[in-house]
Design brief:
Number of strands: 2
Strand content: under 5%
Largest sheet: 2 strands, antiparallel
Number of helices: 13
Radius of gyration: 48 Å
């Protein structure tokens, strides 16, 4: 054969075994049956044995259809949360013997304050409120369960005058505050009343103004907010420039001290002090000790300033203008002096930028001062003209 496997004479080739395919049970969906292992390599998932396996799952519908339908009746009931003894009706099962309305436990009512004649005459009198007005308020509070919006709608305006929701709340909570303070003077009663009506009126007034804005007013407000944000950004930038200027001034003072000192040891100590100073600029080229292994002195000349590419190009251009090459002979003295020269040029460039910034700020303040003085002089001229025109009829 193809695999060159010898076969004994007279041996017949074996027949292929047909795979036994499991049959899908009656009433089982195809998707559910596809979840089962068809090769029986794995254990099938545990399934609960159905009581209707012989007749199929559709037999359950027939079983429920043969049951007797439970009867319902139209029965009366009374809500325990109501005080008017109202009788209502609803559908209930015939075998349901529960007499109490199950939702009555959710009917909770607020406790409304009560007062007598002595308490009212003693502490509850208030200008603008009569005894009849106060009694009508307490009556509505009990009837509508302290829902002040509904109380204001049901308020008798013909007999007691017009009242707002804030007026009703202020009067009710003021009564509660005074009665609590009268019952127990030693208890912890707040120093201020429980409701601030003036604050609530102001809040609603501001909300009305907010919701009644036009499109132009909204755009103007957004513009002002954006301008305020820009002003804050400029202020922070100005403060940062002032801090940088102060650092440059301190560095210039230290540099003057270094240039006036001829002692090399003193110069090294001051240089080390400037290196340790946290206010010092990070763009200076530091004389770092060589690392382990072989190193070339020319690598110190190729060190880059810790600044942007634009400023580094300016320093290189200054060196070219002075006739100094970018790659001089890397002796020890030349390397040290070359790095010091680059540091000094960078320091000079920073001072020039700071000077331009200060001059720009000075010019801006001068223009602002001129504009303010011009406005004031114009106002004074207008006042003097008005005074002269007023004195002419008198002359």
């Amino acid at each position: 054969d193809i695999l060159k496997i010898s076969r004994q004479p007279g041996e017949k080739p074996s027949k292929k075994k047909k795979l036994e395919v499991a049959k899908r049970p009656t009433g089982m969906n195809r998707e559910v049956f596809a979840l089962l292992d068809s090769n029986n390599d794995l254990d099938p998932p545990p399934l609960q044995k159905s009581h209707f396996q012989s007749k199929g799952l559709k037999h359950m519908q027939q079983l429920f259809a043969n049951r007797k339908v439970r009867s319902w009746q139209w029965k009366p009931f009374k809500n325990g949360g109501r005080s008017d003894n109202l009788t209502l009706y609803h559908w209930r099962r015939k075998d349901d013997t529960q007499t109490e309305y199950p939702f009555a436990r959710y009917s909770k009512r607020c406790e409304v304050v009560r007062y007598n004649d002595d308490q009212y005459n003693g502490v509850l009198q208030q200008p603008g409120w009569t005894r009849a007005d106060t009694d009508h308020l307490i009556e509505l509070a009990e009837r509508f369960d302290l829902r002040f919006v509904i109380m204001q709608d049901r308020w008798n305006r013909d007999k007691h005058g017009a009242r707002t929701v804030e007026d009703l709340k202020e009067r009710y909570y003021n009564i509660m505050y005074r009665l609590d303070k009268l019952k127990d003077s030693e208890c912890e009663v707040p120093k201020q009343p429980l409701y601030d009506a003036d604050h609530e009126r102001m809040r609603k007034k501001q909300l009305d103004k907010l919701y009644s804005r036009t499109t132009e007013e909204v755009e103007e407000e957004e513009f002002l907010v954006e301008e305020l944000r820009k002003i804050e950004v400029r202020r922070k930038e100005r403060e940062k420039k002032q801090q940088d200027l102060q650092r440059l001034i301190q560095a210039a003072d230290n540099h003057t001290e270094v240039s006036l000192t001829s002692n090399k040891r003193h110069k090294k100590s001051i240089t080390n002090k400037r290196k340790d100073d946290p206010e010092a600029k990070t763009w200076r080229i530091q004389d770092k000790p060589p690392g382990p292994g072989v190193s070339l002195r020319s690598t110190k000349i190729k060190q880059h300033l810790q600044v942007g590419q634009k400023k580094a190009k300016i320093v290189e251009q200054l060196l070219i203008n002075f006739g100094i090459g970018l790659n001089p002979m890397p002796t020890e003295a030349i390397t040290r002096q070359y790095n010091e020269l680059r540091n000094e040029l960078m320091f000079l460039l920073e001072l020039k930028i700071a000077q331009e910034t200060v001059q720009f700020d000075i010019q801006t303040l001068k223009h602002r001062k001129t504009s303010i003085l011009g406005i004031e002089s114009g106002i004074k001229k207008e006042k003097s003209t008005d005074c002269d025109s007023a004195l002419i009829p008198l002359l």
